[in-house]
Design goal:
By secondary structure, the chain is α+β, with helices and mostly antiparallel strands. It folds into three domains: 212 residues, no CATH class; 85 residues, no CATH class; 107 residues, Immunoglobulin-like (Sandwich), CATH 2.60.40. It has 16 helices and 16 strands. The strands form five sheets. Strands 8, 9, 10, 12 and 14 form a five-stranded antiparallel beta sheet that branches. It has a four-stranded antiparallel beta sheet with strand order 13-11-15-16, with no helix packed on it. Strands 3-4-5 form a three-stranded antiparallel beta sheet, covered by helices on one side. 25% of the residues are buried.
Length: 475
């Protein structure tokens, strides 16, 4: 029934009964059911669309940004080092990556506590790619009603070419996504040339095919199944929500009792609320829920239902905001509280972790050294009568250029050094250097002496020292 047609004269009891949840929709979340998302325009849809395209563009362009003689972001797994612009993270620095993921987790907790599931609705890759696939679907197969009708039609040339064009577009986006993802691990310029000239490694083809099919399946077929049935975030979000968390909410006091009516009639006199029960909020929802049934874990806070409802309110001449970003306290006319213990706690922890991470990233040592004592003999007396200890020194040059290093010992006097004391190490290389240190026994006051082996280098005009403590054994 359109908004301009004259409503039937239902009693209040009949209207309530009519608009109770339909039993036929009880299996709405069956993975075999298809959800045909209706196109909608509005503020939140435009924000989501712009953020989605920006995220996609950032993802595609980032591997192509140069940084010196390499790409800016390169996870070089074979050499066990991650290049992120001017920072090179080695396996010894993986605590930084762990700290980064912890910051991301606490950032998600903080944002969710305050703004709800905006990550899911606006920036989650599953959501971004799903809406990109839906965009292609709408451009090729038409609006929601046309897509439903097309799927119900028998196979014809029109249906065949539309389905073929749609799935071809999906596969192209999936392949581009897979190639881009792999190019974070394999230099992008080499990757595309090797792949299309059939000179790439077999594992590269495997991962490209794997991620192509994964993207095609997730964004093209599974869509809301990932959000409803597989994503753990939707399950544990309740632990972060409170009554002051912003959610997509339906104003029951204002909207009920819902029902169709003429735009010219005074719906208040008919005992109706502002909701005309057009079901557009359900048709535009990517997970197929009815937000009027209250807060549900399936809601991803994308705001599509807000835009649909606001458009309907504009056509009816009613105020906007029947469905809006709001809080449970606001809906219940309870005073809201922005600063609450949970939010403050997340904020404090997040701030401290970010500061520590920035400090740790800025102070990554450009050189690392490990000293291993010879385990075959604690000491030996050489032909000069000196007490000699043997060590294996491993020096890692973590910079982007070859460096020269000087080695010394502190804690011993009048010692002799056997082996190289000045070495040059290429960028990213590990040098294994066997050395021996010998001392006249009269210089030794005890059988175990704590000593330090020091590596000194001048890097970018700055004097860098790295020290490793070890022991010198004697009779």
């Amino acid at each position: 029934m359109t908004t301009e047609s004259k409503p039937k004269d239902y009693s209040k009891e009949q209207r309530i009964k009519i608009h109770q949840p339909d039993a036929s929709k009880a299996d709405r979340f069956n993975p075999s059911n298809s959800i045909y998302v209706r196109a909608v325009d509005g503020l939140w849809t435009r924000v989501r669309r712009h953020m989605g395209w920006a995220s996609m563009l950032f993802f595609l362009v980032l591997p192509w940004l140069p940084w010196g003689n390499r790409q800016a972001v390169w996870f070089h797994l074979s050499e066990q080092k991650f290049h992120i612009f001017g920072i090179t993270i080695w396996p010894q620095d993986l605590t930084l990556l762990a700290a980064f993921f912890m910051i991301a987790a606490f950032g998600l907790f903080f944002v969710t506590t305050y703004l709800g599931r905006v990550w899911c609705g606006f920036t989650c890759p599953q959501t971004v790619w799903t809406f990109i696939f839906i965009w292609f679907e709408e451009k090729i197969e038409g609006a929601r009603n046309k897509r439903i009708k097309l799927d119900q039609m028998p196979w014809s040339f029109d249906k065949l070419w539309r389905k073929t064009a749609k799935h071809s577009a999906w596969m192209f986006v999936s392949l581009l996504t897979a190639m881009t993802f792999v190019s974070y691990f394999v230099p992008s310029r080499e990757l595309y040339i090797d792949v299309f000239t059939l000179n790439a490694d077999g594992w590269i083809y495997f991962w490209i095919i794997f991620f192509t099919l994964a993207t095609y399946g997730n964004a093209g077929w599974m869509r809301e199944i990932m959000c409803i049935h597989m994503c753990p975030y939707s399950r544990f979000q309740a632990a972060m929500f409170d009554k002051n968390t912003y959610i997509v909410g339906y104003d029951t006091k204002r909207g009920e009792t819902r029902g169709p009516r003429s735009k010219k009639d005074d719906h208040k006199e008919q005992g109706l609320g502002d909701c005309i029960d057009c079901d557009l909020c359900v048709q535009v929802c990517p997970t197929g829920i009815d937000i009027r049934n209250g807060l549900q874990y399936e809601c991803i806070n994308c705001g599509a239902c807000i835009d649909a409802c606001d458009n309907t309110m504009d056509r009816m001449g009613y105020p906007r905001g029947l469905i809006s970003y709001t809080t449970e306290n606001k809906l219940d006319n309870v005073q809201e509280s922005v600063l609450r213990p949970k939010l403050v706690g997340y904020g404090v922890v997040l701030t401290v972790m970010i500061l520590v991470f920035i400090y740790a990233s800025a102070t990554i040592a450009p050189v690392r050294m490990d000293v291993i004592r010879d385990r075959n003999a604690l000491y030996r007396e050489n032909n000069q009568g000196l007490i000699e200890n043997t060590y294996i020194v491993k020096i890692l040059n973590k910079t982007e250029h070859a460096q020269q290093y000087q080695l010394t010992v502190t804690g011993l006097v009048n010692y002799k050094w056997y082996g190289d004391q000045s070495v040059t190490i290429a960028a990213g290389e590990v040098l294994t250097l066997p050395i021996s240190v010998a001392v006249d026994p009269v210089e030794l006051k005890r059988s175990i002496t704590n000593i330090d082996i020091k590596v000194v280098a001048t890097i970018d005009g700055e004097l860098i020292e790295t020290t490793q403590e070890t022991r010198f054994f004697s009779p």
